[in-house]
Amino acid sequence: MDETEWLADRFEQHRTRLRAVAYRMLGSLAEADDAVQDAWLRLSRSDAEQIDNLGGWLTTVVARECLHVLRSRRHRREDSFGVHLPDPIITPDGDLDPEQEALLADSVGLALLVVLESLSPAERLAFVLHDMFELPFEEIAPVVGRTPTAARQLASRARRRVKGAAIPTPDADLARQRQVVEAFFAAARAGDFDALVQVLDPDIVLRADLGAARRPAIFRGVEAVAKLAKAPRGARLHPALINGAVGVVITLDGQPFSVLAFTIVNDKIVEIDGIRDPDRVQRITAAVLIEK
Question: I need a surface site. Which of 102, 204, 223, 268 has the fewest CB within 10 A?
């Protein structure tokens, strides 16, 4: 094994964890992969023998790249329509593979990622690295250009925001979740408002990401959501797991049309997250076998 192969093998031992760090930092699978690739390029140009803690060094490189992306994104969104829904991790109904399990460890559902999107870049980095990956503040501080004490304060502020968001904890039974979602679509197809009320929480929230050129939409309450509860004519529903919870990919003429993720608590749908951006839907569903 030559030096390049040896280095690549060592890097691969850390890739899954690095991608998990970047996904929590960015909420984008494509940008997470770019950050991990950037770490490999930097490593390949470095004197690896002089790196005592390769995992820590790589995590720092990924974190710095993610911080740069977050700051650039924040500047762009000041003139745009605001935060969009993070990329969901979509798999067919069934077991997750080891890399998907790593991405979704610590209950990284869409609701948590939405809250993380509201944090400042430095707060998000401090919270993710410390609270999710247990990095000490002494290692986090140089990345954000603060003292360890200031880095601790960043994580503390972020932690309060996350706790204050009261993120719902979904029911654990996926089979029962699926039954609730099926009842929702059956009622929607039948135009049965009373049946919809039976499966929708009175305070339900629906978030819809319609694409970069359109303002994200938020609908609250049973009546508002029930009016939108219908699939396009000719649509097909494909059950999927979305960030470990029940959801569906909707196709029209065999092409991905939208993604819906459901948060179900006590047999009631409390949140629906939908993505209708055509380009984005095509990208995030590409790895899932839709048509059989």
Answer: 223
Question: 3-state DSSP call for residue 92?
Answer: strand
Return phi, psi of residue 234, to 5°: 85, 5
E-state strands within 173-216: 200-209
Per residue in 90-111, pLDDT (tens digit) is 887 665 666 666 666 555 788 8
Q: Residue 152 in contact with residue 186, Cβ under 8 Å?
A: no
pTM for the structure as a whole: 0.83
Q: Which amino acid is at 155?
A: A
Helix 137-144 with 54-77: angle, nearest 10 deg: 40
Distance from C-alpha of 39 to C-alpha of 236, rounded to nearest angstrom: 40
| Exposed/middle/buried for residue 183 (C-beta within 10 Å: 0-12, 13-18, 19+) | middle
Torsion, Cα of 263, 233, 216, 168 (10° steps): -10
Residue 234 CA neighbour count, 13 Å, CB half: 6
Q: What is the DSSP string of 230-282?
A: -PPTTEEEEEEEETTEEEEEEEETTEEEEEEEEEEETTEEEEEEEE--HHHHH
Give the C-alpha separation, 14 to 102, whole Å.
12
Asked whether 53 and 80 are in contact (CB, 8 A), the reply is no
Question: In this predicted model, what pLDDT tens digit does every residue of 173-218 receive, in sequence order?
Answer: 889 999 999 999 999 988 898 999 999 999 999 988 887 667 778 8
Q: Could you tell me the two tokens for 288?
A: 């899932």
Residue spans of the chain under pLDDT 50: 78-83, 289-292
